[in-house]
Specification:
Layout: E1 2-5, H1 11-23, E2 27-30, H2 42-45, E3 55-58, E4 61-64, H3 66-76, H4 87-115, H5 125-149, H6 160-174, H7 184-193, H8 197-202
Parallel strand pairs: 1-2
Antiparallel strand pairs: 1-3, 3-4
Helix pairs in contact: 1-3, 1-6, 4-5, 4-6, 5-7, 6-7
């Protein structure tokens, strides 16, 4: 049985848990990074020398990097709906996954760490404001894409693009940002995702 390692408060771990919920297959979850399960433990570092979660263990195969894990799980299950095999359709999914991991994450990191995690290393009001502004710009870009599609990011059905981006959308709504713009397509998308049990369990579950 597949094992997912990583604390459930991690956005990246929640991507994997939501993907697995969409696959509707059994797994075990070990919350490394919470309590006494230190990411600096030699047993964990042997699995991921970056000391980051998530990690999966599929029998003897170990894999880290959340978006790569999600792609592996969908491909392993033969879920062409979540990750198309046709090159153009697959690239359209993966571009949004890459955008989430680079542009969107880089935009929100300082504001989220300062406003939600309240980390002393992210306490500069000017940098919080700049990060929130960049985050809002990226969300406006997303709003335009969703308005054009009318449903999900890569077409009429849910894909891994929505797993990666949908959790970040939830985080945007849960973070106390000043001057958050009203983005109708993003709001409708958020409600559409909320109809899915996997998103309710691992996305819109009270944790930012």
């Amino acid at each position: 049985m597949l094992e997912v390692l990583g604390r459930a408060t991690s956005l990246n771990v929640r991507k994997v848990l939501w993907t697995w919920a969409e696959l509707d297959l059994p797994y075990t979850h070990t919350p490394w990074g919470a309590g006494e399960l230190s990411l600096q433990d030699p047993a964990f570092l042997a699995l991921n020398p970056n000391a980051l979660v998530p990690v999966i263990r599929d029998v003897d195969f170990v894999l880290w990097e959340s978006n790569t894990i999600c792609r592996y799980l969908a491909a392993q299950a033969g879920r062409d709906d979540l990750l198309p095999s046709a090159p153009a359709a697959r690239a359209n999914v993966e571009k949004w996954m890459d955008w989430q991991a680079s542009e969107l994450n880089n935009a929100w990191r300082y504001a989220f760490m300062g406003l939600v995690r309240q980390s002393p290393a992210f306490a500069d009001p000017a940098q919080i404001a700049a990060s929130a502004s960049a985050w809002n710009r990226q969300m406006a870009l997303l709003d335009g894409a969703l308005a054009a599609s009318g449903t999900y990011l890569a077409g009429p059905q849910l894909t891994l693009a929505d797993v990666a981006v949908g959790l970040a959308v939830h985080r945007w709504f849960m973070t106390p940002i000043d001057d958050r713009p009203a983005l109708g397509a993003v709001q409708a998308y958020y409600e559409r995702l909320s109809e899915r049990p996997g998103f309710r369990a691992h996305g819109r579950n009270g944790m930012p």
